[in-house]
Amino acid sequence: MEKWTGFKTDLWQQTIDVRNFIQQNYTPYSGDDAFLVNPTDRTTKLWQKCSELLTEERLNNGVLAIDAEKVSTITSHQPGYIDQSLETIFGLQTDAPLKRSLIVNGGIRMAEQAAQAYNYTVNPEISDIYHNHCTTHNTAVFNTYTEEMRQVRRVGLITGLPDAYGRGRIIGDYRRIALYGTEMLIENKKNDFAELNRQPMLDDLIRLREETAAQIAALHDMETMAKSYGFDISRPAETAMEAVQWLYFGYLAAIKEQNGAAMSLGRVSTFLDIYIERDLAAGVIDESEAQELIDQLVIKLRLARHLRTPDYNDLFAGDPLWITEAIGGIGLDGRHLVTRTSYRILHSLTNLGPAPEPNLTVLWSAGLPVNFKQYCTKMSITTSSLQYENDDLMRPIYGDDYAIACCVSAMEVGKQMQFFGARANLAKALLLAINGGRDEKTGEQVVPDIEMLEDGCLDYDKVRTNYSKVLDWLAGTYINTLNVIHYMHDKYAYEQAQMALHDTDVKRTMACGVAGLSVVADSLSAIKFARVKPIRDQRGIAVDFTVAGDFPCYGNDDDAVDSLAVEVTGEFNQKLKTHPTYRNAEHTLSILTITSNVMYGRKTGATPDGRKAGQAFAPGANPMHGRDKRGALAAMNSVSKLNYNNCRDGISYTFSIVPSALGKSTNGRATNLTALIDGYFAQSGHHININVLDREILIDAMDHPENYPQLTIRVSGYAVNFIKLTRPQQEEVLSRTFFRAV
Description:
Elements: H1 18-25, H2 41-59, E1 65-71, E2 99-102, H3 108-117, H4 124-132, H5 137-144, H6 147-155, E3 158-159, H7 175-195, H8 203-228, H9 240-257, H10 269-282, H11 287-302, H12 310-315, E4 324-328, H13 340-351, E5 359-364, H14 370-383, E6 387-390, H15 391-398, E7 402-405, E8 409-412, E9 416-420, E10 423-425, H16 426-434, H17 460-492, H18 496-499, E11 507-515, H19 517-529, E12 531-536, E13 542-548, H20 559-576, E14 586-591, H21 596-602, H22 632-640, E15 650-651, E16 654-657, H23 666-682, E17 687-692, H24 695-703, E18 712-714, E19 719-721, H25 727-735
Parallel strand pairs: 1-2, 4-5, 5-6, 9-11, 10-11, 11-14, 14-15, 16-17
Antiparallel strand pairs: 3-10, 6-17, 7-8, 12-13, 18-19
GO cellular component, one term: cytosol
Family: Belongs to the glycyl radical enzyme (GRE) family. PFL subfamily.
Organism: bioreactor metagenome
């Protein structure tokens, strides 16, 4: 079959334009799920082998094997197979499934510590080279950090920074390899490189030329890697099987080269559907074989692994890669983007059982087909594996070919990337405002020139004035820290494979974040509406608080407190924007914690809302545990008030409800859950994780993990195998509100 036979011609044949190809060639599907089929025998046998390996991995302290002898690159390892006779999609990160590789450009110490945690020793030659002869990203960053940057990191005011691991949150347009082949992509990059001769050779241009040259080399390496498996990706894919395989090789190159904190897949299902439907129409494959291609792609994605330290797992629990696939949405021309392959990739949760990866993300719109909405909510009810994001909110900003980086961060595929910035601890910032700029744990002076408040009950206006001063200082320190990190990451740990699958001239965002928002909102509410008196120790630092009187809590649809959350995020976003960014990146802000809400709580003292020292924060934009007392709708209403324009990096909300609260029948529950999502997004809610399960199941899984190998739950912006969480993290999940009524 010729490469583009049967496809409608348009601009995509003259220039690199995957969106145009999709718009000209995809077939919207508004029907139901009746066409879906069971897994093939080959897939079932392959997944059984994988399940056995996954069990072995879990029993081996979470890591099956590590290759500590060589540094991972696109071409570093010989081909690896699970069972070649059963596989239809090929390629592993190393020469064996679930064997983790060394990626050291981000930091040699982290690689060594991660290996040591599992009783491996990094090849001494590698250690010598990267300690004594090659500068890593981590070394360069810490050589450059100011003392205040080190201090805010140390005390937990800014934590999770990508200064020792890959920053991630970059989405290569892996579809380009399938549509064009690497030969055409290389020629396009060479043309861009030649155009860069025409300008003065100054810093920005020299750097871009070096990066473009690295991108061209990465495309050649992808060809070499694919040839080792017997495939020629220099040419465009000619069949559905090749389209899936070519696309996967691009993703595989990215995860062989980078250990980024989030390695999203993009928005591939509608693209792949074009090839699948063409082959189905030509009789090249049948529905069973079409589903097999998707199931086997999903199997490969489920086996992706990176080597992490225990400290990293404390921040980002459950071994995630955030292989996020965006599904659905509406086109700018009004046609929905749901296809049969949108169903097929979701159906992998039935054929293979629930799993956290890939991070399946439905781009929800009022205009999606009812059948598809019902199918999605049924899958949420049975698997708790999906998240939903508001396409009607994002499409006017990002168009109709955006995807989600990590959890909630939208970007145009192949045209935009972000500088990941972790998050600032807003609750600790409030305590700094109350304590004259001193850290409540260590007592050290962190923020200068903050007035010490008088004894007695806290005065709201004085606290709020101090808080604004702290946020002002924090915003500048935060941006300066991120500028250092991303300058050094570009220099020493550049993502040439992923950026080779972008336009040469890309848009960039500086993706800042916050944690502890609901703690701050409730604390300010307590100070404003009740009487809050700090209990100070011999240092004069508030170590606890007494609260007399009632105050409204965020999460109950009460503007008196919800407006405080809106106000604080808007203020911090505006303060961030006053500080210049590396490469003129656009400032964005997220309300997202991953599982670091537990760690942040541990690093933060008692707060005026009544939260005790060390107690976990709520995840993301969630109300604090147990305080959203007016039911599901009220909690959703509070979260939906947060202004997406002030939080363009995303607003994560995790929603848990017991099945009986949604109705008695499966169809009734799906209908009611669909209505809840429709209503939440109609009020400009941005994102929602949905768990539909009983708390008792989680309790039993804590005691008998062997009975729940695939129990999946949504946390802040992603999904995890519940049994992979630490005990404190599991207990935090249990302490969240599980709504028993709407």
